[in-house]
Write a structure and sequence with these properties.
Helix content: 25-40%
Number of strands: 25
Shape: globular
Structural class: alpha+beta
CATH class of the largest domain: Mainly Beta
Oligomer: single chain
Length: about 475
């Protein structure tokens, strides 16, 4: 695992997965435009390091997580499914039948012990401390022409519940208003927003710390859909196979990753709002301007030679697709503990995570597909799933052409579509009301007589196995 962002960049350079841009490139639109070109390249393009952002001495790194290979490297695995298997083993209780079984379980016991973060006396993130520091030294980008301003797009925002002291880490965009204030885009469903609501009820100022460019596993964990009240640092400890080192902030009572390149310390006042936006978002559309809390800077700490890590969101596919793909694979075994009939699931880039969810199931009883739809709509952030398509276990949900074929041949619109209403993502502008709108489930499984289908379900057209093998051999010789 990488101890910090510098290690990750060095390894990407060694593997020729990093493109270094040595010529000056402006943070105003240009860096984002170059990054967009990379994201739209086959396989997500290379990671990018802009060594001379115009007007700044601090390099800018983008698209570091923007491919399957780099996502796996950041999490220290050969494949995301291997990681899902580890999590499944962790969550499956086993009683050793003998001394050999007990010995086999020791490595996993060690992993459990290493989940908890630890506070250390000092860290690289505090090599330089500026209580009068500003945002002016950081090459914060304006990403799209109609954006309301410059945005910090990849922050790790640390807060504590004022009542319970439980920590939350989230990635919430921050529009720069001036050198010492930004917006804090806390959508109503997020953990940071809940902490702020509690602080407002108590009439208290909420302290906030923002870490930029922490060790590579942490930016992913801040985006992961963790259950409310579960510390993201526990997931980070499991993924990194070591305890995450934290340091005390200088001006606020919060801990931040010692590995971070930059830390912004400050607070949000109760009741204070300011107009934020528009912003070119991961939907590929500009989110509408709205009023959000205001972050006030009290101190900036950083490394002596920091790199500013950021991300660009926009028309998919972008870097955030691969962050979402990691959550899809990592959280599948966790969801399967509640819904064991689920065989696989997929959130295609074209569906922007929550707009389209594909699920294959081991169908066991009439109406099973509808049970899965309703379960998803009641399960954490899966409640945002606007369209859920349920197919049988023999359908590959990662093959969009196959799913489209199955939906077209297995679904009757009058019979197999379920409509409902409920919470939707704050960024869903198609909904009539903010954060509340319609959802659709499509049952594309084979229909049974017990579901009212009286005819025989047709079989798929396919050649025999023996003939298929011979045909493949002949075709291989023809195309050699």
């Amino acid at each position: 695992m990488y101890s910090d962002l510098n290690d990750f960049l060095a390894d990407l350079r060694k593997r020729r997965l990093l493109a270094c841009v040595s010529e000056p490139v402006r943070p105003d639109l240009e860096i984002a435009a170059v990054t967009d070109c990379a994201c739209k390249s086959p396989g997500g393009g290379p990671a990018l390091l802009f060594e001379q952002p115009t007007g700044f001495a601090m390099p800018v790194a983008t698209n570091l997580y923007g491919s399957y290979e780099r996502m796996c490297l950041a999490l220290g695995v050969k494949s995301l499914d291997d990681l899902a298997k580890e999590i499944d083993e962790l969550m499956t209780p086993q009683v050793p039948s003998g001394i050999m079984d007990a010995l086999k379980m020791l490595p996993m016991v060690g992993r459990l012990r290493d989940l908890m973060p630890k506070v250390v006396n000092d860290g690289a993130c505090q090599e330089v401390v500026a209580r009068d520091g500003t945002l002016d030294e950081i090459p914060i980008l304006k990403c799209w022409p109609d954006d309301g301003g410059r945005y910090i797009t990849f922050p790790l925002v640390f807060t504590k519940d004022p009542s319970t002291g439980i920590r939350n880490i989230g990635t919430y965009r921050m529009q720069v208003f001036d050198a010492r204030t930004t917006a804090m885009h806390w959508q109503r469903h997020k953990g940071g927003a809940q902490h702020y609501r509690v602080a407002e009820r108590l009439g208290r100022r909420l302290e906030v710390a923002v870490a930029l460019g922490a060790e590579p596993v942490l930016p992913y964990c801040a985006t992961a859909p963790m259950p409310e009240g579960v510390d993201e640092l526990l997931l980070a400890g499991f993924l990194s196979r070591k305890r995450i080192e934290m340091v005390k902030c200088v001006s606020v009572d919060l801990d931040v990753p010692a590995s971070a390149h930059i830390v912004l310390e400050g607070y949000v006042e109760p009741g204070e709002r300011r107009r934020e936006g528009p912003f070119g978002d991961h939907t590929g559309l500009y989110s509408q301007p709205d009023d959000f809390p205001v972050f006030h800077l009290t101190c900036v700490t950083r490394r002596k030679k920091p790199t500013y890590l950021t991300t660009i969101v926009g028309v998919p596919p972008m870097e955030d697709y691969y962050l979402g793909l990691a959550s899809e694979r990592i959280f599948l075994p966790i969801i399967q503990k509640t819904l064991p009939e689920i065989v696989d699931m997929h959130f295609p880039a074209e569906g922007i995570f929550h707009n389209l969810v594909l699920v294959s199931i081991d169908k066991r009883y009439p109406g099973h597909a509808r049970k899965i739809m309703n379960a998803f709509w009641g399960l954490g952030q899966l409640m945002f799933s606007k369209t859920i398509i349920v197919v049988d276990k023999d359908v590959d949900v990662h093959d969009l052409s196959q799913v489209a074929w199955i939906v077209g041949t297995h679904m009757d619109p009058m019979r197999d579509v379920q409509m409902t209403r409920g919470p939707v993502d704050d960024l869903d502008d198609a909904a009539d009301l903010p954060a509340y709108g319609g959802k659709m489930g499509i049952d594309a499984t084979k229909k049974w007589a017990s579901e009212g289908y009286a005819r025989a379900w047709p079989a798929r057209v396919a050649t025999t196995e023996a003939v298929g093998r011979r045909a493949s051999d002949i075709w291989a010789r023809v195309t050699k």
